[in-house]
Amino acid sequence: MNFGEELKFYRQKANLTQQDLAKFINTSQQNISRWEKNEVEPSISFCVALADFYGVSLDELIGRNIKND
């Protein structure tokens, strides 16, 4: 999955609308929409807020798999 798809996956998993999520992390619904469509990327502060909100690491939020050999 790409970053926008990951964001949408976590939002839908939490059963939230874009508007709901926007209120929780203090941004606009339009920003959530643009992030999910990969039109723009959120700032690191919003990435941290999203990861904290969902209770996941930043790596998980962006779909990064870390291989431990």
Q: Give the CATH architecture.
A: Orthogonal Bundle
Q: Count of DSSP E strands?
A: 0
Strand residues, percent: under 5%
Please state the overall shape, judged from the principal axes of the Cα atoms: globular
CATH superfamily: lambda repressor-like DNA-binding domains
- Sheet bearing the most strands, described? none
The level of helicity is 55-70%
Number of discrete helical segments: 5
Could you name the CATH topology? Answer: 434 Repressor (Amino-terminal Domain)
How would you describe the overall organization of this protein?
The chain is an all-alpha fold. It has one domain (3-61): Orthogonal Bundle (434 Repressor (Amino-terminal Domain)), CATH 1.10.260. The protein is built from five helices and no strands. The chain has helices spanning 3-13, 18-25, 29-36, 44-54, 58-61. The longest helix has 11 residues, at 3-13. It is globular, with a radius of gyration of 12 Å. The mean pLDDT is 91.
Task: Give me a quick take on this structure.
The protein is mainly α. The chain has 5 helices and no strands.
Record the SSE blueprint:
Blueprint: H1 3-13, H2 18-25, H3 29-36, H4 44-54, H5 58-61
Helix pairs in contact: 2-3
For the structure shown, list the relevant keywords.
single chain; 69 residues; mainly alpha; 434 Repressor (Amino-terminal Domain); 61% helix; globular
